[in-house]
Amino acid sequence: MMLFAIDRHKKARLILIGGLFALLILARLVVLFDDGHLVTATRLKPVRQINTDVPAVALTFDLAYGEDTLPLLLKTLREQSIPATFFLSGSWASAHPALVDVIQADGHTIGTLGYSGGRLCDLGAAALQAELSSAIKALAAQTGHTPQFFRPPDGACNDDLVQVATEQGLLTILWTVEAAPGRVRDSEALVHRVVARVRPGAIIRLRADDGAYLTYAALPELITALKAHGLCCLALPDLFAAAID
């Protein structure tokens, strides 16, 4: 029932979310999540968890290189009717327009990792502005839409990076839990690591590059386990919408 309600009012809710983002940027405020309660502060911070009691989470995938694992992940998501959010580097998107088209055609949300997909928090303000501006232009050229979400590659960020992203109209997204394939031995351990740490409103970070075959192997089991815990999977805009419904 919840999913149908979100679909039916999706346009209105996304308009509302866009307005909230604009107000946050203009006021130089950010919504933080402290012990499950919404608070505001003048210091910009990335979002790690969405404050909601709705039993839903967001699957998010980072992709800056490779082209072999992505189609396998997309096939699983398509078969399971799961919407997700893909954070792409601008350089990858420019080099793989056909795959970007498939991601978009499947109804997934597309955010950015910056243009190069490399570490950004050591750059100066001018270089950061150029990096994010190039990423926004690259994704807009491929998708016809300006991305709303930005994830610092590997989560490496600081206040200056978040500030520049906000000035570029991007909401900085980190994660509640990551699958971290390098830290587990098999797909069962990966699923256990994620499920043990999630709660409603969690943002789950996974990889979609060609070093992430374990993510692909674990994805069907992970989706099943989340459902068994009463959690459905939404793209980030819909999870934000559910939080303010």
Using brief descriptors, characterize the structure shown.
245 residues; 6-stranded parallel sheet; two-stranded antiparallel ribbon; 10 helices; 10 strands; globular
Low-confidence stretches: 1-6, 22-42
Q: What is the terminal separation in angstroms?
A: 14 Å
**What is the correct CATH architecture?**
Alpha-Beta Barrel
User: How big a fraction of the residues is strand?
Assistant: 15-25%
Fraction of residues in helices?
40-55%
Shape descriptor reads globular
Number of helices: 10
Alpha-beta classification = alpha/beta
The domain count comes to 1
**Main sheet record:** 6 strands, parallel
Q: What this model shows, in words?
A:
By secondary structure, the protein is α/β, with parallel strands linked by helices. It has one domain: TIM Barrel (Alpha-Beta Barrel). The chain has helices at 2-8, 10-27, 69-80, 90-95, 97-105, 125-143, 159-167, 187-195, 213-228, 236-244, and strands spanning 30-34, 37-41, 56-63, 85-88, 109-112, 149-150, 171-172, 177-178, 203-207, 232-234. Strands 3, 4, 5, 8, 9 and 10 form a six-stranded parallel β-sheet that branches. Helix 3 (69-80) runs parallel beside helix 9. The two termini are 14 Å apart. The relative contact order is 0.21.
